[in-house]
Amino acid sequence: MYFGADYHPEHWVHPYDGTEEEPEARWLRDAQLMKAAGMNVVRMGEFCWGLYEPEEGRYRFDWMRRVMDIMKMHDIQVVLATPTAAPPVWLARKHPEILPVDENGLVLHEGTRHAYSMNSDVYWEYTRKIVTELAKALGDHPQLIAWQIDNGIGGHGTEFSFNEETRRDWHAWLRQKYGTVENLNNALGLRFWGQVVARFEEVPMPMRAPTVHNPALILDWMRFASDTAVAYVGMQAELLHELTPNVPVTTNLRALSRHYDHFDMAGTLDFVALDSYATMANRPAENAVEFDIMRSLKKGGVRTPDGQEGFWVIEQKAGNVNWQDVNSLLRPGVVRLFTYQLISRGATGALYFFWRSPRIGSEKFYGGVLGHDGDADNRVYREISQIGEEIKLLGPILKDTKVEPEVCILFSHENVWALKFPMQPTKYFHQWDHVMRFYRALHDRNIPVDFARPTDDLSRYKLVIAPSLHLLAGGEADLLKLYVQNGGTLVGTFNTGLVDEHNIAPRTGCPHDLTELFGLEVEEFDPRPPDEENHLIFRGSFPASHAHCAKIWCDIITPRECETLATYSRDFYAGKPAFTINEFGLGKAVYIGFMSDQAFYFDLADWLRQLCGLFPLLRVPESVEVSMRRSKDRNIYFLLNHQKNSVRLHFYKPMHEYLTGTTLTGNYDLPPLGVLVLDEKAPGDRAAAQAEEREEAIEAQSS
Ligand code: GAL
Fold it and tell me: Which position among 304, 518, 580, 662 has the lowest Cβ density within 10 Å, counted as fewest Cβ atoms?
């Protein structure tokens, strides 16, 4: 397990610290304090191009080598970033064509980070040069265990740039995809408003215009921008693999929120890393989902520095941030809780951002492990040192453990991009909100969840949930049918298959290509104003704990082979099916034609548990989050109390707790923000009997 900090040694040279005689004196002290806090890794150098190469061709890597030597003396490993996130000022002055241009045609100027276009040939050339020099200068250092490529690719809205070189690449991309202008005009539907082109060179970039651009063109533009970002990172990855074949590469991602395909991006990397934005203002599920997404982005071919499968959280906030309206302190215990949350969901590296709050620059009021004074006698350092001690204990038992969900939620970037187009059936439908209703229901029931693209191998999952796959390619639909045919359970919803991969509405009925699978046809759909509700009347065994509503969107369904589970109670479609199930091959396809309140999704999770034979990891109150990492011979449970109150647990059989080294039995009050790490020897197979036994072993009630 890697445990460390994001260190910026360049901030701590005289006159900011150190002395006139020994300008770099602080570095030694920092390394000593890191070591004492149990740290074994730092990430450095992500914005240092202007310091490595203060003038074109004059390189200075010696100072970073000195930092790495100091780290070596303290057994601290190093992840070095390529510094391309912050091009030096001289480069932009010499080649202003590298600067990004926004959708209004305005240049985004130099003097800060991310001031580059990923379509600039000149920027690619200079990138290759600085990455090569860096790898030649420091790639042989014994402390180097990984490269981070760039930093926060696409940050500050720079995924899109409207430069002339971008236009050139855009046209080449379209030419490669469509071959002929006729194909292009047809696939993009450019007959609409008569926007057909005679040559590829005429296709516009979707810059600011009197009204919306063609949605199919925008979708291709998003794909093109995504391919550009992935190619730029891929170019650096390839170069680094050539220069330092034994050093894995990563980059720091945000959980699905940037405008590129995160799965494609993960494909260019040896392992993925996250900048975590966990906050106490969020529900535990909203923090947990970021980690589950990271783990899901790269499910095979993972190469981490220690060979452990998993992802890293390469920026975990240590204290307050600086970008909220009010940047409150993290309360005592919160960093520890967040750290265990990320570990419990599969992280094998955790690094705090910042090591020390900088005295300079725009992030000087960002909380670090150390404050501006650099003094270790502070609350945050003490808390992180305690975590460091605990991680030393846990590291060995977490070795070779993995999180292995049996449920998966499908997510496709292309679908989200299609849904971003403003002229939708309703502006009150939000895809991520829809996804989160399912995720939260499963999370709060302590049922582990992966994410996947519709084209991934789904055969390992008992249950696949596909919320609102508005854009569904024919190939994706076939794979979903195959999954169910072979015995899987699929949950589909309204707003599925409304367009194909070209953003063209099908003429063969909705959900496009899946009517046979669900045994129904959506005749019409009725988006509803947010303050209006229809109601559901359930038939059969669905455990409705409330009178559930249908809102935002109501599909009007004509059943074919499916069985109806609920009907609408009102309006001209009263009595028509709203919620159905269909046997297909060896499996089942459930269809939910409406959006509802969270309570419905909780009931749904309970019903699906029964339907698919899923078991919660442990039976504890909902306020306790449970995750499990398992290896061949043991299950490690993490119990996290996210609440302000303690929670009473009852252990019917003794269980070993790692952090305290004690055996827990009988009543146990898990304090606010408290964490337990429990061990169970497992026969290897998560059989129903074993799950029942566990449920008997620990039962809990809120105090
Ligand atoms: C990260 C970025 C850091 C810092 C941080 C602030 O995404 O990589 O450099 O700016 O955000 O929250």
Answer: 662
Residue in 146, 40, 633 with CA at minimum distance from that of residue 389: 40
Distance between CA 277 and CA 362 in Å, rounded? 18
Q: Which residues of the chain have pLDDT under 70?
A: 681-703
Verify whether ligand 1 is closer than 6 Å to residue 151 (CB atom): yes
DSSP string of 558-626, one letter each residue:
EESSPEEEEEE-SSTTTTSEEEEEEEETTEEEEEE-EE--HHHHHHHHHHHHHHHT---SS---TTEEE
pLDDT score for 255? 85
| Beta bridge partners of residue 356, listed in sequence order | 370
Ligand 1 near 321 CB (within 6 A): yes
d(CA 355, CA 149): 20
> What residue type is assigned to position 139 of the chain?
G
* Packing angle of the helix pair 164-178, 215-243 (nearest 10 deg): 100
- Beta pairing class for 563-568 and 587-592: unpaired
Q: Is the CB of 47 under 6 A from ligand 1?
A: no
pLDDT at 298: 97
pTM check: above 0.85: yes
The owner of tokens 């993925």 is 272
- Select from 363, 364, 365 the residue to mutate for testing ligand 1; criterion: most ligand atoms less than 8 Å from CB: 363
Beta strands in 335-385 (DSSP E): 347-353
Secondary structure of 108-156 in HEC code, one letter for each residue: CCCCCCCCCCCCCHHHHHHHHHHHHHHHHHHCCCCCEEEEECCCCCCHH
- What is the best residue among 6, 275, 322, 324 to mutate for testing ligand 1's pocket, by most ligand atoms within 8 Å of CB? 275
